[in-house]
Design a protein that fits this description.
The protein is an alpha/beta fold. It has 2 domains: 6-241, Alpha-Beta Barrel (TIM Barrel), CATH 3.20.20.70; 250-355, Nucleic acid-binding proteins (OB fold (Dihydrolipoamide Acetyltransferase, E2P)). The chain has helices at residues 32-41, 52-56, 62-71, 85-93, 103-107, 109-118, 147-154, 181-186, 222-225, 231-241, 250-258; strands at residues 6-10, 13-18, 21-29, 46-51, 75-79, 98-101, 123-130, 133-136, 141-143, 161-166, 265-272, 277-279, 282-289, 294-300, 314-324, 328-332, 347-350, 353-355. α1 packs parallel to α3 (62-71).
Length: 356
Amino acid sequence: MDVIPAIDILGGRCVRLTQGKYDSPTVYADDPVDVAQRFAAAGAKRLHVVDLDAARGSASNRAVIARMLEGAGIQLQVAGGVRSEESVAALLDGGAQWVVMATAAVRDPHLFERCAFGHPGRILAALDVRDNKAAVGGWLDTDPVVLKALVGRWADLPLAGVILTCIDRDGTMSTGAQDDKPRAAVLRRGGVGRRPPPHRRGRHPSGNPRQGVVRRQDHPRASNVGVRLTACLFAALVLAACGGRETADDQGLHRDIQNNSAGEEVTFDATALTDPVQSGDHERFEVRAATGEMLEVDHNTSLAQYVPVHKGDGLVIHGELYIDPGPRYGVHCTHAHTSSGCPNPGWIEYKDTYYE
């Protein structure tokens, strides 16, 4: 594992924000160049530098970053307010090894694509998440883009990687997640992109094709760590790492039913067709999925709260698909507490409340 120290610069000084709030920064040092040199002396090989002023569009610390690039003696990946091809080129020409794009990656996909293909292996996407939404403009705004769709747009780009930040936990010295494995998987070295079409392939300035993007055949441990994340997998990891919940994938449920894929984890929109009936320690009711399939919901009320749903109500269900002879389709494991045969914690969302 590579440890990459980070320096956030605000008003020319090294600071730390808590949950992205600019009004009460903690100042750690007055000279970012000196801090970078100390990180290099301690053995760091790579440094993440963020221009917070440029990120929110209030000013710029490019002169400070230029001094860091000249004298730090360490490879830098630079972020903050990089929203044009000219900015990308200037940073790379100035000595940055990688450039990080966040707002542009979310709001200007065509620009982001041009930069990625123009500098293969040297552009990183930053996915900053607040309340399961992509934060932009120095984290001052959020964009209502679907995370799975957003990452899906990046899947074919020759990126150097993706940086995930869960804003609600940033600067709090806590993870908030029960399991750090999803976060570790997201931050593995390597890009999320596939090989670009032949007419769009580029070369790293060193002469090595697609340097910085680790593929299965490029890395001796690739067969074990699976460095190429698919768009859907990465979106799921984002939600897990940031404490969010999966969004409905109605077509995914439809495909699983078509393929008789019992045991698949599913999340879908539904309408209740019956009032619930309590049977032993289970609450059972029929629903119609958004794609038309009828399923029985088998909700364990000894492990989760009773859902006060009524016929005609809408809800979102996350659980495990089962198929009984007939065939008869249903979903169970809709509870957060694991039990025998339920590897995936589930939930039911009804009237903005999660029953789990």
